[in-house]
Each structure stands twice: as structure tokens, then as C-alpha cells.
Specification:
The protein has helices at about 5-15, 35-45, 60-80, 95-100, 105-120, 125-130, 135-150, 165-170, 180-240. With about 240 residues, it is an all-alpha fold.
């Protein structure tokens, strides 16, 4: 799975958010941090205060300021709300993003925000957005999520959290106690299985259709032969008269 495929998957996921101040059609549209801030603000408006949307152009210093603020809030969210050790996360090179629009470094930040979304209190909303995309995008986004979880070491919260923090960690799980990432994986596998079954059914129908069509064509040929024989018989009877 290429970096371009993963980038496309994330851009398509961003496209499911309707309240963005400007359209995002490619990964480089995210380098100023504005759209990413707006996504995070939708996820948790109390924690992420969306920055003022402005056209900062190619001013890398302003981009850098936005990205620093965003990354700080994201890592704090992982630690204070989700209970994960942010020190384990692969820190993106924000300077490379701001100055050079580095796609690899930008994707590191995007991975964090995507994984944050499927672990937040309203995770079903953002899982639903993933499920609304095509199969290839879904697979790419799962790779992104799994890469972040691998950095964290596990899908479990910090064992040293006190009881109040453990209560906050309930946002990790649905009402039935299932890890939302595990639920997403299960739902994706189910959708793939259903797709495979539909494809097999379609293939079976195509085969049946071909068999019926072949029989129909055989009947047409036979009918034409019978017609010709009848015509020959009628001519013979006419000559006999």
C-alpha cells in the first residue's frame, strides 16, 4: 500500500466533513493546519478551539504556528482524555510540513487525528465516515490507525491512571464495552465478506444467464432448422400434386 494511497484515503475521509471553511482535494491543502483544526474542533469543541480561518498563503511561519498549537493539543488529548502515553507517538517534523509540504511528515499528524477520532466519545460518527468510503480507502485508513496503535504499544489505557481518569477512559469503548477500533475492524471484515458474497452471487447469476442464453440460442437455431425443413416439405408436397 503506497503513501499516495494512504494520503488519498485520508483526503477522502476529510471530505466527509461538511463544515470545513475551504475544500480539501489533496494532502497539501492540509499543511496550514486550518482544516485539521476544524476537524478536531468538531470532534471535541471544548478541547480544540478552532483557529481563525484565514488565507495564510505560503507563509511558513504562520503555518508552523498553527501546526505547533494543533500538535500540542492533540498530544495532550491523547494523554489527558484518552490516557495514552504521548511520548510513544512518532512526532511529525512540523517544520518540514510548513516549509516543504512534506507528505510523509504530514501523514504522521493525520494518522494521529484519525486515530483520535475513532477513539473519542462520539467515535461511531467518525467510524461511520470511514465506512461510507470505498473499500480501498477503508483499508488505507485502517493501516493508518493500526500504525498509531502500534506506536502506543496496545489499545489499552495507561495502567497508572487514577479512578477519575479511568472514568474518562470509558470513551474508548462503546456501550457494550467493545474497543471501537476492534469494532471497526469487525465491521470492515463483515463488509468485505458481504461484498465477496455479492460478487460470488453475481458470478453465479452470470453463469446461469449464460447457460440460459446458450439454450435460447440453441432453440433459435433448432427453430430455424425446423422452419427450413417445413418449407422443404411443403415444396415437395407441392411438386407431388
Amino acid at each position: 500500500m503506497s503513501q499516495e494511497d494512504i494520503a488519498d484515503g485520508f483526503v477522502h475521509w476529510v471530505g466527509t466533513f461538511n463544515a470545513l471553511s475551504k475544500p480539501v482535494t489533496q494532502l497539501s491543502d492540509l499543511t496550514d493546519g486550518i482544516a485539521l483544526f476544524e476537524i478536531c474542533a468538531e470532534i471535541d469543541r471544548q478541547w480544540f478551539k478552532s483557529i481563525r480561518s484565514a488565507d495564510i498563503g505560503d507563509n511558513w511561519v504562520l503555518k508552523m504556528n498553527n501546526l505547533k498549537k494543533l500538535y500540542k493539543l492533540v498530544t495532550q488529548y491523547y494523554e489527558d482524555v484518552l490516557g495514552y502515553p504521548a511520548s510513544n507517538l512518532d512526532e511529525p517534523n512540523l517544520s518540514a510540513i510548513a516549509k516543504n509540504e512534506d507528505p510523509e511528515e504530514l501523514l504522521k499528524l493525520c494518522h494521529l487525528i484519525l486515530t483520535l477520532a475513532v477513539q473519542c466519545e462520539r467515535n461511531q460518527v467518525y467510524i461511520g465516515k470511514i465506512m461510507s468510503l470505498g473499500e480501498d480507502d477503508q483499508r488505507c485508513l485502517m493501516v493508518s490507525i493500526e500504525s498509531v496503535l502500534a506506536q502506543l504499544g496496545s489499545a489499552e489505557p495507561d495502567a497508572e491512571l487514577d479512578s477519575q481518569d479511568v472514568d474518562m477512559m470509558d470513551v474508548h469503548r462503546d456501550n457494550d464495552g467493545v474497543d471501537p477500533v476492534s469494532r471497526l475492524q469487525a465491521e470492515l471484515l463483515k463488509s468485505y465478506a458481504e461484498k465477496d458474497e455479492l460478487e460470488r452471487s453475481a458470478q453465479d447469476l452470470n453463469i446461469e444467464h449464460k447457460v440460459v442464453r446458450d439454450k435460447y440460442e440453441e432453440m433459435l437455431v433448432l427453430n430455424e432448422e425446423l422452419k427450413m425443413r417445413m418449407e422443404d416439405l411443403e415444396k415437395s408436397m407441392a411438386r407431388a400434386d
